[in-house]
Amino acid sequence: MDEFTDEITEEVEEKSEEEVELIEEKSEEIESIPKKSEEIESIRGESDEELEESDEELEDLEEVESLPFAKAEVVRLMKKNLSRDKLIRERVKVEMNLFLGEVLERVCEQLNDYPYTTIEYEMLKESIYPYKNIERINEEKRRILLHLDAIKADCDALSMDVKKSLKLKDVDEEEDDF
Predict the structure, then answer these.
(1) Distance CA 45, CA 48 (A)
(2) Most exposed of 72, 85, 99, 114 (fewest Cβ within 10 Å)?
(3) CA atoms within 13 A on the CB side of 11
(4) In angstroms, rounded to a whole number, what is the distance separating the alpha carbons of residues 142 and 6?
(5) 124 or 168: whose pLDDT is higher?
(6) Above 90 in pLDDT, residue 32?
(7) What is the chain's alpha carbon radius of gyration, rounded to the nearest angstrom?
């Protein structure tokens, strides 16, 4: 047995690296043949609905290839920030990835507006401000809307006072005419 092993080892060492790689590729192809035949058999047995679902999965796979970020990293971050009992559907994972890509594009568009060739940290801070401080911005928006409502109420009260005073003047002038 040891002699046989030694002979095989010597033969493998004699082969060039290209031949070894070729042998490995061929062996992988040979190993994949049963898997492919199983896939073919399973496809033959599928109903039309299942075929449509597999077509959708292929479209999803094509979409996944065009995702801006590694899907696993986005999912890891989502799971880190979600409750443990939450399950994330595939569509949500893909859409979150696309959304993050859009945010990145918008920030880069803002950074492109600067006339400088080097992007400094201060420029980045200014560009991401709306995304990092959305709560503060929304609170400021609520405060401004409440203030505008108060101004509107004051204007309505002044308008009513002016109308009353005009009516009183009209009534006083009518009495003077008699």
Answers:
(1) 10
(2) 85
(3) 6
(4) 81
(5) 124
(6) no
(7) 36
Give residue-wise pLDDT tens across range 61-109: 555 568 999 999 999 999 999 999 999 999 999 999 999 999 999 999 9
Q: What angle do CA 25, 27, 28 make, to 5 degrees?
A: 65
Read off the amino acid at residue 69: F
Three-state secondary structure call for residue 118: coil
User: Helical H runs in 46-120?
Assistant: 48-65, 71-81, 90-112
Question: Measured on CA atoms in the order 86, 87, 89, 92, is the torsion positive or negative?
Answer: positive
Q: CA dihedral defined by 101, 106, 111, 115, rounded to 10 degrees?
A: 130
SS3 letters across 47-60 = CHHHHHHHHHHHHH
Q: Is 69 helix (H, G, I), strand (E, B) or coil?
A: coil
Q: What pLDDT was estimated at residue 108?
A: 94
Closest CA to 67 of 96, 46, 107: 96
At 133, give phi and psi (nearest 5°). Answer: -115, 35
Give the Å distances, CA to CA, from 15 to 6, 27, 28, 167: 14, 16, 19, 111
Say how far apart CA 7 and CA 149 lie, in whole Å: 92
Q: What pTM was computed for the model?
A: 0.47
DSSP code at position 67: -
